[in-house]
Design brief:
three-stranded antiparallel β-sheet; alpha/beta; 2 domains; six-stranded mixed β-sheet; Rossmann fold
């Protein structure tokens, strides 16, 4: 904890001054004490334990200390929203996401986790989304209107891709979308404009890209695309954009369906499978590649083999991404504490004060 005006803590000297005045008052009271000949009346007036006499004054002193500390405007260290931050969500929508080793399916678990992420992020965080299978498509441009992103999440899987998994191309699309989003805001501006002033401050593109993060989820290996996964990761690393990767699914995951003998869910241009009897096709994730992408870009890698783990990962990332270390003023907390202590002191004093019979 710190204080915006620490020199005002000198006001705490009022506490020992109040103690000195209280002790002086006690001495004066004892000097003018009178003698009671009727001890029964004296006991009734005293009203029991002597420690009760000191509780209200102590609470009042604590209230005074809290108010004096509030004058110095205390702050606590915490994570505060980064006003210009942008997160690009990237989600695999290939056919293998229909596997049921993560209940109810990999895709439905991922969509639920994405909604949890949106529940946790700051309201002013700009969120965009890319959906990919054999090709990458922008499902939602970066925006602070998170309802737009939620609507896009609901549409994922309506037309699930059958054209493979293009991890490298999806990373490139995410980097390009992130770079396009950053220059639209000036440092102290809430909307588009003032880009000349923004560039005039001498920030390089890579420095501005530090405001962008990519949250990348996939459940399989690269099977299609012009760019290899590590090449896409290198693009992000060169741009200074960290990639937080999540490998979804178990090594034993399989895709069940009425697939033809030569059907491969990762093959380029694979058409909708005809019915040739139910088969099982292994669809394991690729944690090694996704882990390396996170390492080379300065992000973090997570492995989710069940829906609860995936939910926790997105919940944690939703609390971390788009925030930076900062300080929040808590003057109101100290004022409320002081008022509460003073109120309790007054109530106890009224309840415990001696009464003549």
């Amino acid at each position: 904890m710190s204080f915006q005006s620490p020199w005002l803590l000198v006001a705490l000297l009022a506490v020992p001054l109040a103690v000195a005045l209280y002790m002086l008052a006690e001495q004066r009271r004892m000097r003018y004490a009178v003698r009671f000949t009727n001890m029964e009346v004296l006991a009734a007036v005293a009203g029991g334990s002597t420690w009760r006499r000191y509780v209200p004054p102590i609470l009042a002193l604590l209230a005074l200390a809290a108010v004096c500390a509030a004058i110095a405007r205390p702050e606590r260290n915490t994570m505060v929203p980064e006003e210009r931050a942008t997160v690009i969500l990237v989600i695999d929508d290939s056919l293998s996401m229909q596997a049921r080793d993560v209940e109810p399916t990999r895709l439905e678990a991922a969509k639920s986790a994405l909604r949890t992420f949106l529940d946790r992020v700051p309201d002013r965080l700009r969120v965009g989304m890319i959906v990919f299978s054999g090709e990458a498509q922008v499902a939602a441009p970066p925006t602070t209107d998170h309802d737009i992103v939620r609507d896009s999440i609901g549409e994922i899987g309506v037309f699930s891709g059958y054209g493979g998994t293009a991890i490298g191309d999806a990373l490139r699309a995410a980097v390009e979308l992130g770079e396009q989003a950053v220059p639209e805001l000036a440092p102290d501006d809430d909307g588009p404009g003032q880009t000349i002033a923004y560039y005039a401050q001498g920030e390089s593109q890579k420095e501005r890209n530090k405001l962008v993060s990519i949250l990348f989820l996939s459940d399989g290996s690269q099977t299609r695309g012009r760019l290899q996964p590590l090449e896409g990761g290198q693009l992000a690393a060169d741009a200074g954009i960290p990639v937080y990767t999540i490998a979804l699914g178990t090594p034993e995951g399989v895709l069940r369906g009425d697939f033809g003998p030569g059907f491969d869910p990762g093959s380029p241009g694979q058409p909708m499978p005809p019915s040739f009897g139910e088969r099982e096709i292994p669809v394991p994730p690729d944690p090694e590649t996704l882990g390396e992408i996170a390492r080379m870009t300065g992000g973090e890698f997570s492995e989710a083999k069940d829906a609860k783990t995936l939910e926790r990962v997105y919940e944690q990332l939703g609390s971390d991404l788009g925030r930076k270390p900062g300080e929040v003023e808590i003057t109101s907390w100290f004022m409320a504490l002081g008022a509460g202590l003073l109120l309790i002191a007054g109530l106890l004093s009224a309840a415990w004060s001696p009464r003549l019979p």
